[in-house]
TrEMBL record:
InterPro entries: TadE-like_dom. The chain crosses the membrane at residues 6-28. This is TadE-like protein. It comes from Actinacidiphila cocklensis. Residues 2-42 form the TadE-like domain. Keywords: Membrane, Transmembrane, Transmembrane helix. It holds the Pfam family TadE. It comes from the Bacteria.
Length: 115
């Protein structure tokens, strides 16, 4: 009889475990988006030929794990480079997407080349 009670709890325990894994994925994607934004902004702030938006976009997209995709945009202003990275959060529940994309921004001053 006790084994039947435990068997009835297994789906609930599995659901709780999967929810914990999903929350961990959301946090990990947020960290990866922050890394991509910082890398893109830092690289784009460098003077030519090493810097620029194209180099920053490639560096930011390359900074995330291979199984994630980062999209870099440039809401630029003033003497600083601002990069925004967006990463889609994968779902552990097939066909159910409870979370949208995670976005992070980073701002870096342009590299001073006059010295």
């Amino acid at each position: 009889m006790a084994s039947l009670e435990y068997l009835g709890m297994v789906p609930f325990l599995l659901l709780i475990a999967l929810a914990g894994i999903q929350l961990g994925l959301v946090a990990y994607c947020g960290e990866q988006a922050g890394t991509a934004a910082r890398t893109a902004a830092r690289t784009a702030a460098l003077p030519a030929p090493d810097g620029g938006k194209a180099a920053g976009k490639a560096a930011g997209e390359g900074a995330v794990s291979d199984w994630l995709t980062a999209h870099i945009t440039w809401p630029e202003y003033g003497d600083a480079i601002k990069a925004e990275a967006t990463v889609e959060v994968p779902s552990v529940f097939p066909g159910v997407h409870l979370f949208g994309d995670v976005s992070r921004t980073a701002t870096m001053p342009r590299e001073d080349t006059t010295r």
